[in-house]
């Protein structure tokens, strides 16, 4: 399969105050390594677009998205896909890429949204996917405003549908997660796993395609090192992508 992943990158600009004096440093980071390695280890081709690259280069049309068997959005807000630099800076009219994602799924594509501070609704509601065309092809209904559930004590995931293809061979206790985005499963959606009483892994069908919501993270901080190093981590993500793409 060929998989497009957008997001999972950030820049931190820090102010260091040392008595009277101060200086700044800037650091760029990506959180994609574990997920990309897991998918590539199962033979998939992964095309990765950090958020700043996706702003300009994410496909404009359903036809362009059709090059991929599965599209994953992870910690990338709706504004990054809506406000192409040519639109924001030069007022140039361009296709609505959220509508393109919806058309791609209905035509047979697979979509996976992975939780974080800038997916679903996110911190302070700034991810802004509620009521968008993307929500139309996800198996969950989003809450208005900040939807984060921070759980420093840990949330214990549990399988709700052991026989679902996404959980084939995923046995035993899951490692704890440290948070997720609170959503409600849509009517007729399948809640495959939950955590702390919230939907964690939800599956749905839309037209000829499929949508999956994984409401926690694929990497720290909500997915701690124990989760990323879990023996079933690679199997789980391979099967999530495979199911979304229609492989099962």
Can you describe this structure?
This protein is of the alpha/beta class and 248 residues long. The chain has a single domain (2-14, 25-244), classed as Rossmann fold, CATH 3.40.50. 23% of the residues lie in helices and 34% in strands. An eight-stranded mixed beta sheet has the order 4-1-5-6-14-13-12-9. A two-stranded antiparallel sheet has the order 2-3. Strands 7-11 form a two-stranded antiparallel sheet. A hairpin with a 2-residue loop joins strand 12 and strand 13. Helix 1 (33-41) packs across helix 8 (233-244).
Q: Which helices and strands appear, and what pairs or packs with what?
A:
Elements: E1 2-7, E2 9-18, E3 21-30, H1 33-41, E4 45-49, H2 51-57, H3 62-65, E5 70-74, H4 78-82, H5 85-90, H6 97-106, E6 110-114, E7 140-142, E8 148-155, E9 157-159, E10 177-181, E11 183-185, E12 190-195, E13 198-206, E14 209-214, H7 225-228, H8 233-244
Helix pairs in contact: 1-8
Beginning-to-end CA distance, first to last residue:
13 Å
By CATH, the superfamily comes out as Class I glutamine amidotransferase (GATase) domain
Order of the strands making up the biggest sheet: 4-1-5-6-14-13-12-9
How do the helices and strands follow one another from N- to C-terminus?
EEEHEHHEHHHEEEEEEEEEHH
CATH topology: Rossmann fold
Regarding quaternary structure, what we see is single chain
Average pLDDT over all residues: 97
Broad structural category: alpha/beta
> Could you tell me the radius of gyration in angstroms?
18 Å
Task: Estimate the strand proportion.
Answer: 25-35%
Point out poorly predicted stretches.
Answer: none
Largest sheet: 8 strands, mixed
CATH architecture: 3-Layer(aba) Sandwich
Count of individual helical segments: 8
Kindly state the number of beta strands. 14
How many discrete domains?
1
Inertia-based shape: globular
């Amino acid at each position: 399969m060929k998989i497009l992943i957008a997001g999972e990158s950030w820049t931190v600009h820090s102010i260091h105050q040392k008595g009277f004096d101060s200086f700044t440093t800037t650091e760029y980071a990506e959180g994609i390594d574990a997920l990309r390695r897991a998918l590539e280890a199962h033979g998939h081709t992964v095309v990765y677009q950090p958020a700043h690259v996706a702003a300009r280069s994410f496909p404009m049309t359903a036809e362009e998205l059709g090059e991929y068997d599965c599209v994953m959005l992870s910690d990338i807000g709706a504004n990054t896909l809506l406000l192409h630099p040519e639109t924001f800076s030069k007022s140039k009219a361009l296709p609505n890429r959220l509508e393109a994602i919806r058309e791609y799924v209905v035509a047979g594509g697979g979509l996976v949204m992975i939780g974080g501070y800038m997916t679903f609704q996110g911190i302070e509601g700034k991810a802004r996917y509620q009521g968008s065309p993307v929500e139309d092809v996800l198996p969950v209904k989003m809450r208005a405003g900040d939807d984060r559930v921070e759980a420093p004590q840990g949330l214990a995931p549990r399988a709700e549908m052991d026989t679902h293809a996404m959980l084939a061979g995923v046995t035993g206790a899951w490692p704890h997660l440290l948070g997720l985005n609170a959503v409600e499963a849509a009517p007729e959606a399948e809640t495959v796993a939950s955590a702390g009483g919230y939907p964690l892994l939800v599956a749905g069908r839309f037209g000829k395609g499929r949508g999956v919501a994984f409401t926690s993270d694929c990497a720290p901080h909500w997915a701690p090192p124990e989760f990323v190093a879990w023996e079933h981590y690679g199997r789980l993500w391979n099967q999530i992508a495979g199911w979304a793409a229609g492989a099962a």
